[in-house]
Amino acid sequence: MKKTVKLLALLLCVAMLFSFASCNKDADKDVPRGMQNATVPGADFRLYIPTSWNPNLAYGVSGGYASLTRLSNVSMVKYPITEEMLTSLPAPDAENAANERIDWFYTTQCRPTLELVSLQGSFVEVAPKAADLINNLNAIRYHEKGNVDGKTVHFVQVLTERANAFYVFSFTVLDELYERLLPDVEKILDNFVFADTPYEPDDYLKSLNTSAKAPEGMQLASNGEVAYRFYVPKTWSVNRDERIFSAYVADDRTSVSVIPYMPDGSNISTHDLFVMSENAMKATAGVDGYELFSHDSEATLDKRPADRYHYRYTVGGISYHYVQVIAAYKDKLYCVTYTALPAYFDAHLAEFEAILAAFEFK
Questions:
Q1: Quick one: how many helices (H) and strands (E) in the chain?
Q2: CA-CA distance, 271 to 156, in Å (whole number)?
Q3: Which of 88, 121, 154, 251 lies 20 to 30 angstroms, CA to CA, from 67?
Q4: Alpha helices by DSSP H, 127-231
Q5: CA distance 266 to 46
Q6: What are phi and psi of 28, to 5 degrees?
Q7: DSSP characters over 82-138
Q8: CA–CA separation, 57 vs 258, rounded Å?
């Protein structure tokens, strides 16, 4: 279970590196009684969860969980409608268009991912899709379940469309916790609100030593909590609103991130990790949405053996180019990932090579 969930989180993180938002910091004074804010900076909504739950914003997704040791997650994600989606979506003025558009997005974008993580043949409908509400907007609720790593997992998703985007609320939970946590989830949905202004928390999620020593022309983009030193050019912006360490070019959102992966006792090589991620990308990218350009099995990261991959992956109808370098260090695998739109890929590639050259394991 943990291996599958962590792999999906890793894939999701790589896919969402262009969601960075710069914001001023302010306290949220409208938290409902008995609830806490679980919203990522820059979101145009507020997701509140019970105070007995734990917020989880590590991968730049608004959400939280009820149990640290047993799968019990909620999240809310915004998916802007792309030009590619518009070619397949029912027209807004068609009869019953609102429901058909939501159903199209669930069927083509959401359900395939849920089927992917479920044992083949185990993914089944628990209840027919049903009308629902999200902050007084018409929505549709879907409820399926599947076998994930030998355990029955419920997938409840509530979708709505607003301001040229789809919003997907997800409740992913083990079968034995479903009934007990469902009242909490209904409360979370009842207190969810859309906002006129982006969320601006009162502090950064992680601290950085801005005066730390760094190679000429670079700055430290990590801190003492991790087993590496990650340097980026001074002209890049360091993202401090997610638990992962990453930085980006403000003008075009080209980015580099460092993501650890814990194998959980199983013997997973750097190539094994990429293959698992690759299978997930192939299943979720759509026709011609993924392409592997190259694989260098003799690459290095801080003099350690590494695998290097260059590929194209389509996220939300937009294709990005990625270079991912994966190395093992102590008990973890580390993925250093370069992400750029095709038009900017070559422009910042030399800077990425400098980032790799400066990277150090402690």
A1: 8, 22
A2: 33
A3: 121
A4: 175-191
A5: 38
A6: -90, 115
A7: PHHHHTTSPPTTSTTHHHHHHHHHIIIIIHHHHHHHSPTT--EEEEEEEEEEETTEE
A8: 16
Residue with tokens 């389509």: 314
The tokens describing 257, both together, are 């991130």
What integer pLDDT is reported at residue 16 of this predicted model? 45
DSSP class of 331? T
Query: How many residues in the chain?
Result: 362
DSSP state of 213: -
Residue written as token pair 């000429």: 216
Query: 85-111, pLDDT tens digit by residue?
Result: 888 888 887 777 889 999 999 998 889
DSSP-based three-state secondary structure for 8:
helix
Query: Which tokens sit at 86?
Result: 């518009």
End-to-end alpha-carbon separation of the chain, Å? 30
